[in-house]
Specification:
heterodimer, A: mainly alpha, 8 helices, B: mainly alpha, 2 domains, 9 helices, 0% strand, globular
């Protein structure tokens, strides 16, 4: 999918540039993109390093674990098929808590473990269970409460109010999560 | 008021995390350095994706093809108060996290984070996640072949997220 879109972007871009006589612009851009991508990675790198470091403290000190304990009762309602006290619930909670801080990369290992644990409850091993799909929807709708990466990047690019988007982000996330869960329930009932 | 609170979010987060670490007698500095070290691997895997995406997207944008091909989309977009420049991000957000992060950087560099485009891009990035990536990674890791309705449910969440981002940014920061 990414491959097709990427190829499409380049083919269309080059052909249109050639047809409209923008060869110089194109040449310039092809050389320039290496510099701009290096600039970007230089901007992103320290931001990621900082938050990975902070998050590591939160993981090691058990703060993330505490937060996931708070979430467990709510999750029990969203995942009625999971037996009470099953380890997959706490793994899902850890994944969601890490996502809340806008740190998708810290969340992934918990997510993979949670899926494995959900698989142990699954009857048909090659087919996605309802709980798995609900968990997936929670992840794809994004449950970010503090978009740390975005705030830091805004600051890097000279925003005067880097945190002004936080409430808009939270509101949009809540709507997309609730909406996603409703669609999930409707589709689950249908089939 | 909201601004006051939101500008406190990051400092408070740092205070709570580090404070709790000290309270729990963790070697906070060592643990921080360990965590930050992981960023090297991440940057190394990210850079090629970033370069590729900037390459593709910038050639595409420089050709001004958006102006030709999406002439018919433009009135619709502007009626909805969505700058056409956001279009590539909307398409790629569910597909690849590093590409949409690259686009976000690109939009910040071109239009500035405090522009309408910059704000909208921030909220879209913050309120959705990469459905295709998560689906492939999570289901791939446990050998699920029949994904049933999960793609549709995941994409629905993305569409709802992007639409609500547009509505909310217009309400909050209306151009």
């Amino acid at each position: 999918m990414v491959n097709k879109i990427w190829g499409f972007f380049i083919i269309i871009g080059v052909v249109v540039c050639l047809l409209t006589g923008k060869v110089d612009v194109l040449n310039n851009e092809i050389l320039e993109c290496t510099k701009s991508s290096l600039d970007m990675i230089v901007k992103i790198f320290p931001v990621m390093a900082l938050w990975l470091g902070i998050m590591n403290i939160a993981t090691e000190s058990g703060l993330l674990h505490k937060l996931s304990n708070l979430l467990s009762p709510l999750l029990q309602k969203l995942f009625p098929e999971i037996p009470k006290g099953h380890e997959s619930l706490s793994l899902i909670a850890s994944n969601i808590s890490a996502n809340m801080f806008g740190l998708g990369n810290a969340a992934t290992p918990f997510g993979l473990k949670a899926m494995k644990s959900l698989q142990s409850l699954n009857d048909k091993k090659d087919t996605a269970s309802r709980s798995m799909i609900t968990f997936l929807v929670l992840n794809t709708s994004g449950v970010t409460i503090i978009p740390t990466t975005i705030i830091s990047l805004r600051l890097m690019y000279g925003s005067t109010k880097p945190t002004e988007v936080v409430f808009a982000c939270i509101l949009a996330t809540v709507i997309s999560t609730i909406g996603g869960l409703i669609v999930d329930r409707i589709l689950a009932r249908r089939r | 008021m909201i601004e006051r609170i939101s500008s406190l979010i990051i400092p408070l987060l740092v205070l709570i995390v580090v404070g709790y670490g000290i309270f729990k007698k963790i070697n906070v500095y060592d643990v921080f350095v360990d965590g930050a070290t992981e960023s090297f691997d991440m940057v190394l895997t990210m850079f090629p994706c970033l370069l590729g995406m900037i390459f593709g997207i910038n050639i595409f944008l420089k050709s001004d093809v958006l102006n030709y091909v999406f002439t018919f989309l433009k009135p619709l977009f502007s009626r909805l108060n969505v700058p056409i420049e956001i279009f590539p991000m909307m398409i790629l957000r569910p597909i690849s996290g590093s590409s949409s992060l690259a686009i976000l950087n690109n939009l910040f560099a071109h239009y500035g984070p405090d522009s309408f485009i910059g704000r909208l891009a921030s909220v879209i990035q913050g309120s959705t996640d990469t459905t295709f990536y998560i689906l492939t990674l999570y289901f791939g890791s446990i050998g699920i072949k029949k994904i049933r309705y999960s793609l549709w449910a995941g994409l629905a969440a993305d569409v709802i997220g992007i639409v609500s981002a547009v509505v909310i940014v217009n309400l909050f920061f209306g151009a």
